[in-house]
Amino acid sequence: MTDKGYVLEEGNRLNNFAVEPKVYVDDKVNTGFTNYAETINGRFAMIGFVSLLALEAFSGHGLIGFLSSL
Questions:
Q1: pTM of the model
Q2: 11-63 pLDDT per residue, tens
């Protein structure tokens, strides 16, 4: 006897493990070179480039010079 996701065995014992979960298969691939991943990578690259320009403007040294002076 099955009722709303649980099974009652003989003697009205509850058996939660007798019901298998519904399987959902997504055919859409979300890995690799997707438009979203490329957009995010481009934005992070722009942030890094502007940060390096700001570092050079404020410290007067490039990245290597700044790190060697620490």
A1: 0.51
A2: 777 766 656 678 888 777 777 788 888 999 999 999 999 999 998 898 888 88
Q: Would you call 58 exposed, middle or buried from its count of C-beta atoms within 10 A (0-12, 13-18, 19+)?
A: exposed
* Helix (H) or strand (E) segment spanning residue 8: strand 6-8
| Angstrom distance (rounded) from CA 10 to CA 12 | 5
Measured at the CA of 28, the angle between CA 39 and CA 33, to 5 degrees, comes to: 30
Q: Among 30, 7, 29, which Cα is nearest to 18's?
A: 7
Element (H, E) at 57: helix 35-59
Asked if residue 21 lies in contact with residue 29, where contact means CB atoms within 8 angstroms, the answer is no
Q: Domain residue spans in the chain? A: 2-68
Q: In the numeric block, which tokens belong to residue 15?
A: 């058996």
